[in-house]
Design goal:
The structure is a single chain. This protein is an alpha+beta fold. It has a domain of 327 residues. Helix content is 30%, strand content 13%. Strand 8 and strand 9 form a beta hairpin. It is globular, with a radius of gyration of 26 Å.
């Protein structure tokens, strides 16, 4: 979608840039979605600016900062709780809990997990004992000699292995750096993390709950920061890390078959562009896979950090902010300069480009178009697939192999969905205003659930494409409204007789 603020008129460009700067300074979305709202009772037409909701600072600093504050609140509420949370019935899309699915070692999907594969543990991976699991998610309470009770939890960091010597994030010798292995490990890293939580729960003795963030190391390999509720012996965690691996049961993709030619779609299947011979289907290719030899094996590296944390404390606050530090940045942007006056390190920029180039043609899953490059039809293949142009996020420059979620939250972490945490933040502001005798933001303003006298929705929302002047006016109106809410909220806190919970850093 073209940016409504970037028009041919230079004055419109300058005004649009100024509006964005003002919006960013006031914590307001600078690139909102504009919707037209018709009030069927009064016949009035209104244009409304809806925040874009981006979680990336480069796209929208205000929305990204708001999303990070929400994650900080979610992490803090669940980390050291001393009561069992109620399991929510449904989670937001961001709160999926893939670790609950206990599949065979694979990185493909249902088709592979149904096939007969070797179920023996690898000889180079230690066995893990199974222990009785208590029906609890909270940590144990300890009592000091002075009689003080405390319930510690843990902060854990897991990394991937080395692919070659690095200096300042870039390979010392790019020629010997194992980019292929680094790229494949990044692609299957989410599944490796899932397997770690499955293994940990089998030996920890209780239903381990966690809030974790997947972030890039300076060398661009993904690693995991995790807040774990309760404590687990360090030796047990080290044992689980050593025993955790993921085997990728894919057809061989060592040697490209089609580099300068492109397989042709004949209306039903892909075939050789010259001979017309059909390419093996995904199922046919899997039939040729050695059931004892996976295409790739992913493991964690030797670097492992663990720390016990007691809350409330400065260490707990610092750990939460460190855990969410890079959530507003893409994988490639995490360590690149944000100041236009600071030149990027050419060695580091080349490292990013080389890793991205490796990921461009590697498969990201069983439906990846890149399988055509290796002479294999992807699962459920259809017309229009071109090797090197797969739509999966793992191939993007911004993600560099990580096509999954950046935030992983177990089901019983806080007992709330992300939407419920968002509502809590808005309630804090509204209650403070009402306690001071002020009118809080209307909850159901123009809501689609509000009905007219005929029982049908009173407000009808439709898309609209305003001109640049209208767009700027709506952005500045949102800035003015935010300033008014912030002023009223500050006055309400000062007027309140009792202390007000100030977890919400800004009005909703």
């Amino acid at each position: 979608m073209a940016d409504p603020l970037r028009l041919a008129d230079p004055l419109a460009l300058v005004t649009g840039a100024m509006a964005r700067e003002v919006a960013a300074a006031q914590g307001v979305c600078g690139r909102p979605l504009i919707r037209r709202v018709l009030d069927r009772d009064t016949g009035t037409d209104t244009q409304v600016a809806i925040p874009c909701g981006s979680t990336r600072e480069r796209a929208c600093p205000s929305c990204a900062a708001k999303a990070r504050r929400l994650r900080i609140q979610q992490c803090a509420e669940g980390w050291h709780r001393d009561t069992e949370p109620e399991t929510p019935g449904d989670h937001d899309a961001d709160d999926g809990d893939s670790d609950q699915v206990d599949e065979d070692d694979c990185a493909g999907g249902e088709a592979e997990s149904r096939r007969a594969r070797s179920t023996r543990r690898r000889s180079d991976a230690p066995d893990l004992p199974r222990v009785p699991v208590e029906d609890r998610t909270v940590g144990r309470t300890y009592v000091s000699p002075e009689g003080r009770e405390y319930r510690p939890s843990m902060f854990l960091t897991l990394t991937l292995p080395s692919y070659g010597a690095v200096r300042a994030g870039a390979p010392v010798d790019p020629g010997t750096y194992d980019y292929r292995r680094a790229a494949l490990d990044a692609v299957v890293f989410p599944r490796l993390v899932d397997r770690f939580w499955q293994n940990l729960r089998r030996v920890a003795g209780y239903r381990v709950q966690y809030f974790a963030a997947v972030e890039p190391q300076h060398r661009l390999a993904p690693h995991l920061h995790a807040a774990i509720r309760g404590t687990i012996p360090r030796q047990v965690i080290k044992q689980v890390v050593r025993a955790t691996y993921v085997q990728v049961w894919w057809p061989s993709f060592e040697t490209p078959v089609y580099v300068y030619r492109r397989p042709r779609w004949d209306g039903h299947d892909y075939c050789d562009p010259d001979t017309g011979q059909l390419l093996p289907t995904w199922q046919d290719a899997l039939d040729q896979v050695d059931p004892d030899t996976p295409a790739h094996v992913a493991r964690f590296g030797k670097q492992l950090d663990m720390a016990g944390i007691v809350a409330p404390s400065v260490d707990a606050d610092r750990a939460i902010r460190y855990l969410t530090k890079y959530l507003t940045k893409s994988i490639a942007d995490a360590y690149t300069p944000t100041d236009d006056d600071t030149p990027a390190d050419p060695r580091y920029a080349a490292h990013i480009d080389r890793l991205h180039a490796e990921l461009q043609y590697l498969p990201c899953g069983e439906r990846c178009a890149n399988w055509l490059r290796y002479g294999i039809q992807p699962m459920d293949a259809g017309p229009g697939l071109i090797a090197g142009r797969c739509g999966g996020k793992a191939h993007d420059w911004d993600h560099l192999g990580l096509g999954g979620r950046r935030v992983l939250v177990s089901r019983q972490w806080s007992g709330k969905t992300l939407a419920e945490h968002r509502a809590d933040r808005a309630t804090v502001v509204r209650e403070a205003l009402e306690a001071a005798g002020m009118l809080g933001p209307e909850i159901e303003r123009m809501a689609a659930t509000v009905l007219a006298k005929d029982g049908k929705p009173r407000f009808v929302w439709t898309d609209t494409r305003p001109d640049a002047a209208t767009y700027i006016r709506l952005v500045l109106a949102a800035v003015a409204e935010q300033r008014r809410w912030r002023t009223e909220y500050q006055a309400a806190k000062e007027a309140a007789a009792a202390p007000v919970d100030n977890r919400s850093a800004a009005p909703p």
